[in-house]
Amino acid sequence: MRRIAWAEQEMPVLRQLRERFSKERPLEGIKMSACLHVTAETANLMRALQAGGADIVLAASNPLSTQDDVAAALVQYDEIPVYAIKGEDNATYYNHLKAALDHAPHITMDDGADLVSAVLKDRRELLPNLIGSTEETTTGVIRLRAMANQGVLEFPVIAVNDSQTKHLFDNRYGTGQSTLDGIIRATNVLIAGKTVVVAGYGWCSKGIAMRAHGLGANVIVTEIDSIKALEAAMDGFRVMPMVDAARIGDIFITATGDIHVLDGEDFAAMKDGAIVCNSGHFNVEIDIPALEKMAVEKKQPRQFIDQYVMADGRRINLLGEGRLINLASAEGHPSAVMDQSFANQALASEYLLTNKGKLENKVYALPVEVDQEIARLKLAAMGISIDILTEAQVTYLNSWEEGT
């Protein structure tokens, strides 16, 4: 409970929403199943939803992301069922998802679209009572848009990740800081002077590159999108194909949402002692089966490090089993940035209920007004004021007659 309370201090927007929810009870009578990283920040979201009247259960969205003490506290003090154990195997992970869906939810809350996928594939009996879902992460939104495009999505989903108060801050500042935190905790290596290769240049990768550079690293970015590659180059980073970067990198970080971003060709080119890790949602970005096949020996020099010894004696160090390094060996995003993300989640749940029966089976973003309100509350909590347009300025911006 002390860790949950400590996190809440840095979550003023969610705290205000919890206070409103406790008075208005907008989620009264609603069953919710959440599949999220079980952290102190998530605990505060669960408590806010419960204050709003929701009957909620929680499962982990990654086998290594659970903070066991937080899970236990939610069960003991808040009577919220939690299906999560740090280090659980795949079979246990999917059994926990099944248990969360046995709750027969009206709303699901996802971080990676696993609950939605399970409903559509295996639990179709839940569809008649399902109002909709909310999605936290980029990878999940990609999967959900694929479902919508193929016509298999059978209920509306709110893409929380599309909110500017989420991806511009959580993805960039949260992932940037927590990824480097995870690498340092797992390895205790000095980042300064190292060549850090960042795969991708979306918002998460931008944050990682920025923070690695801030710690003194020489940063290389690899990309498949010419516009993002150009942006990385103009931000001052070297840009090149991964196979070229593999020869000179010391630390490799993937954050693309795709498979085999690092593969056998890259492992064959890496120098002795290379560190590889992933900050994307699923553990598919690093081709671990290829690494296993190439290695003649596997060691564990430290917790969260699997060291693969190649036939020529080179050692490649895989962190956190290729899973989210910021949660595998660290504590995930700082509370201050999750405040905005989880405020979006809470309001997305309320939005689904308010608009029940009005939304199509599509992926939606929250209205801009909701985004602006979250930003306004955050600024107020930080003691920051901004300018307000005068009537003359509003008139000018809405007219076309006045020019030079």
TrEMBL record:
<comment type="similarity">
    <text>Belongs to the adenosylhomocysteinase family.</text>
</comment>
<dbReference type="InterPro" id="IPR036291">
    <property type="entry name" value="NAD(P)-bd_dom_sf"/>
</dbReference>
<protein>
    <recommendedName>
        <fullName>Adenosylhomocysteinase</fullName>
        <ecNumber>3.13.2.1</ecNumber>
    </recommendedName>
</protein>
<keyword id="KW-0520">NAD</keyword>
<dbReference type="InterPro" id="IPR042172">
    <property type="entry name" value="Adenosylhomocyst_ase-like_sf"/>
</dbReference>
<feature type="binding site">
    <location>
        <position position="223"/>
    </location>
    <ligand>
        <name>NAD(+)</name>
    </ligand>
</feature>
<dbReference type="Pfam" id="PF05221">
    <property type="entry name" value="AdoHcyase"/>
</dbReference>
<dbReference type="GO" id="GO:0033353">
    <property type="term" value="P:S-adenosylmethionine cycle"/>
</dbReference>
<feature type="binding site">
    <location>
        <position position="170"/>
    </location>
    <ligand>
        <name>substrate</name>
    </ligand>
</feature>
<keyword id="KW-0378">Hydrolase</keyword>
<feature type="binding site">
    <location>
        <begin position="279"/>
        <end position="281"/>
    </location>
    <ligand>
        <name>NAD(+)</name>
    </ligand>
</feature>
<feature type="binding site">
    <location>
        <begin position="137"/>
        <end position="139"/>
    </location>
    <ligand>
        <name>NAD(+)</name>
    </ligand>
</feature>
<comment type="function">
    <text>May play a key role in the regulation of the intracellular concentration of adenosylhomocysteine.</text>
</comment>
<feature type="binding site">
    <location>
        <position position="111"/>
    </location>
    <ligand>
        <name>substrate</name>
    </ligand>
</feature>
<feature type="binding site">
    <location>
        <position position="171"/>
    </location>
    <ligand>
        <name>NAD(+)</name>
    </ligand>
</feature>
<feature type="binding site">
    <location>
        <begin position="202"/>
        <end position="207"/>
    </location>
    <ligand>
        <name>NAD(+)</name>
    </ligand>
</feature>
<dbReference type="GO" id="GO:0071269">
    <property type="term" value="P:L-homocysteine biosynthetic process"/>
</dbReference>
<feature type="binding site">
    <location>
        <position position="166"/>
    </location>
    <ligand>
        <name>substrate</name>
    </ligand>
</feature>
<feature type="binding site">
    <location>
        <position position="326"/>
    </location>
    <ligand>
        <name>NAD(+)</name>
    </ligand>
</feature>
<dbReference type="InterPro" id="IPR015878">
    <property type="entry name" value="Ado_hCys_hydrolase_NAD-bd"/>
</dbReference>
<dbReference type="Pfam" id="PF00670">
    <property type="entry name" value="AdoHcyase_NAD"/>
</dbReference>
<feature type="binding site">
    <location>
        <position position="39"/>
    </location>
    <ligand>
        <name>substrate</name>
    </ligand>
</feature>
<dbReference type="GO" id="GO:0006730">
    <property type="term" value="P:one-carbon metabolic process"/>
</dbReference>
<comment type="pathway">
    <text>Amino-acid biosynthesis; L-homocysteine biosynthesis; L-homocysteine from S-adenosyl-L-homocysteine: step 1/1.</text>
</comment>
<feature type="domain" description="S-adenosyl-L-homocysteine hydrolase NAD binding">
    <location>
        <begin position="171"/>
        <end position="332"/>
    </location>
</feature>
<feature type="binding site">
    <location>
        <position position="333"/>
    </location>
    <ligand>
        <name>NAD(+)</name>
    </ligand>
</feature>
<dbReference type="InterPro" id="IPR020082">
    <property type="entry name" value="S-Ado-L-homoCys_hydrolase_CS"/>
</dbReference>
<dbReference type="GO" id="GO:0005829">
    <property type="term" value="C:cytosol"/>
</dbReference>
<keyword id="KW-0963">Cytoplasm</keyword>
<dbReference type="InterPro" id="IPR000043">
    <property type="entry name" value="Adenosylhomocysteinase-like"/>
</dbReference>
<dbReference type="GO" id="GO:0004013">
    <property type="term" value="F:adenosylhomocysteinase activity"/>
</dbReference>
<keyword id="KW-0554">One-carbon metabolism</keyword>
<feature type="binding site">
    <location>
        <position position="136"/>
    </location>
    <ligand>
        <name>substrate</name>
    </ligand>
</feature>
